[in-house]
Amino acid sequence: MRDDRSEALRDWYGRQARALPWRIPPGSDAMPDPYRIWLSEVMLQQTTVAAVKAYFATFTTTWPTVHDLAAADDAAVMAAWAGLGYYARARNLLKCARAVVADHDGVFPRTEADLLTLHGIGPYTAAAIAAIAFQSRAVVVDGNVERVMTRLGAIETPLPGAKPEIRALADTLTPDTRPGDHAQAVMDLGATICTPKSPACVLCPLRDHCDGRKAGIAESLPRKAPKIPKPERRGYVYVARRGAQCLLETRPAKGLLGGMLAFPTSDWSDTPIPAAPFDARWKDAGEVRHTFTHFHLTLRVLTTTQGGNPDRGEWAPLDPKALPTVFAKAWRQAFPDT
DNA sequence: CACACGTGGCA
DNA sequence: TTGCCAAGTGT
User: Fold this and answer.
1) Same domain, A49 and A176
2) pLDDT tens per residue across span A112-126
3) Pairing of strands A283-291, A261-262
4) How many CB atoms neighbour CB A263 within 10 A?
5) Is residue A265 part of a domain?
6) Which residues touch strand C (CB under 7 A)?
């Protein structure tokens, strides 16, 4: 706390902290609920605050404690996560909740090392939970911290090579008192002031300490390797409706959209091979486009209202909200009225 | 270490 | 319209 930069950051956070559903106000002596901190941190992995809010409300209402979540049906949790993306997080969320109940008496472990043993908790999340939920002096490094630290220290080493330098600087800035507030202060700064593009340096509590700003290179940091263009893939998706039911399948537990509810599809490739789940007069309903992390996809949507004996999946009532976004798009393309 | 893994918003 | 990006983890 001797550090001028940490003090400036703490004071700024005291004034400008965002009010978030999982957050206690800066300086508060209230005890955060580790379950809610954990849940919010997992949801926030590579995901914006705006996208997380509604899901956090649904999850904490439906499953208020880690015991409730551990006892939930897999399908219910996957359906509730639908649309948020990175579905391995939902699968790991259940594994983690069940391990906390089975192996830790329903109480989240307090140390980074113990937290790290749980599914879906990596170095960032372990440090964040230790700092925010348990007031432990953990050094929290995420994308925001990387951006703020590379600018503050004018670190021009490209990522990921710069990580040791970044961590060392973050360690220097982390105070002994209220390290959880400090971690959230850096992340709020990165989200609202020290943004990827057009940072608002004039409003920054660290502007007089920032070497990147002094050198006029802040906005160009952190340096990163150029992105590889995404390849194009194509496929066929089969949307069959029979009265109130649709033909649905649960995707394999590993891989893309693993464990999620889906319509049957062909393979997705340069030259997909049509693979209707049963013989029928399939009607061409046009195409939908969707972009995943590492490829673009164009799906030709084929529909029928005939019945049939499918070679995979089963007839079941459909809640479109339980589908990953790419299949929700296909559903809307197939049956715009519903 | 490099790559797989979603999505919606914004310039 | 296209590309970039957001509180990363697992393999």
Assistant:
1) yes
2) 999 999 999 999 999
3) unpaired
4) 25
5) yes
6) A 20, 23, 40-41, 44-49, 86, 88, 92, 119-126, 128, 142-144, 147, 184, 187-188, 190-191, 195-197, 224, 226-227, 229-230, 291
